[in-house]
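Hi all, long-time lurker, first post. I run a small reading group and we've been trying to get comfortable going from sequence to structure in the token notation. Rather than ask abstract questions, I figured I'd post a concrete chain and ask someone more experienced to write out its structure so we can walk through it together at our next meeting. Sequence below, copied exactly:
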Amino acid sequence: MSYFLGIDVSTTGAKALIIDEQGDFIASHTTEYPLSTPKPLWSEQNPLDWWNGACASIKAALGKAHLAGDQIAAIGLTGQMHGLVMLDKADHVLRPAILWNDQRTGKQCEEITAKVGGLDRLLALTGNQVLPGFTAPKIVWVRENEPKVYDQTTHILLPKDYVRFCLTGEYATEVSDASGMSLLDVEKRVWSKEMLSALEIPEAWLPVCTESDQVSGRISESAAKATGLKVGTPVVGGGGDQAAQAVGSGIVQAGVISVTSGTSGVVFAHSDHYAAEAQGRLHAFCHAVPGKWHYMGVMLSAGGSFRWLRDAIGDVEKAAAQLMGVDPYELLTQEAATAPVGSEGLLFLPYLTGERTPYPDPQARGAFVGLTLRHGKAHLVRSVLEGVSFGLRDSLELIKGLGVPITQVRASGGGARSAVWRQIQADVFGAELVLVNVTEGAAYGAALLAGVGARAYRSVEEAVAATVKVTDRTAPIAANAQVYEKLYPAYRGLYPALKETFHSL
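-- Answer (accepted) --
Happy to help. Here is the structure in token form:
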């Protein structure tokens, strides 16, 4: 029996997950590490913490599974995207990694867009707007603000790829993670020479870029000693966290969409063909499925909006939940179920921390609109669940606009645990919402990619078909869907009507 290891270098910890040849979960372990915010809007981590965390988690997972390192046939990597790791000629880390949620580079984003010839040219070159979270503006920021660090740089890596370097000694990445750097020609799946030239970034600094299921290196002697893995074990490309999670959720064919309702909300769609959204409101990235692409819309406060409501007005539910031994969200969604569909005209705008899709506006704000004396707590709770669902639908509508069909929506994240919220989403989307048997997310997808790289499966699609199964279905209720179809245009009108007010505040 062979086993496959997925390693997820997330913002909170390094996770190691082991599956067998049938895709069955065997064991996992997560080692947490700190996050640094040395200045407002800054977010950094020490890459050595990722490596030490990965080593600890690999050893612990092998121990839990009662496996020896030589029983692992291949390893896949995933993790937080966009982070900047800079190495010198001795391969020493030059400064803390600047992370995906760091917001210091607004000025550099504007400079880059102007330098390449405006948004249209940027979309033609990379398929995406350049955003503060992406890697290229971080590189420019270091050049402008820390020239001594910049001058010593010889290699640039993304977070998971630094762990790959520690495992194998290879400077390598893969197309799904590279898509979020603003340096990749996403359509052609190669580094954009025009972007690199315009930004004066040496191509020699960049890692080799492969497809996600290709072997990118093998476990070195030093890594074998540090992890307990066998020397020479292949390490495949893997994927950025969203692409790897999509593989683990079965989003590898046209028409099947994933909606993840965590703190943020992510709508992810597979596409057999490449096309950039005309205004760059959707991310257009290479998929972890070779030769395929994906579109992704991101809202910043999905489950985060529900958490805000729980903390703001849910003291009674939190106290009751503690006595009952249940989750306070369960009690709040039970209350929401008592309010009528559409919350009697109460709309909630879920922009509590600004927004990304469809409005990339850090000054956007949340709002309740339509309050009357009839509205009570149940209406407020339901309105938040409906407002977040409308926000997720915004991304679905943009995806439809690119000609991508939507036949099934696969739900994950904390919001997917609520039957009430699943029904609301199915009704708002006008599409069947399903759950699948995989709950381990990106690490599971990375392990499946390792299995493909080891030739246990002939393709990513075959790996998914053999392992990912639908476990629950929620069909839209026609009468409810009609109510939401009438309310959705009113929701869409809120941001344009309130934008000037938000910015004045």
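A couple of things your group might point at:
The mean pLDDT is 96.
The chain has 19 helices and 24 strands.
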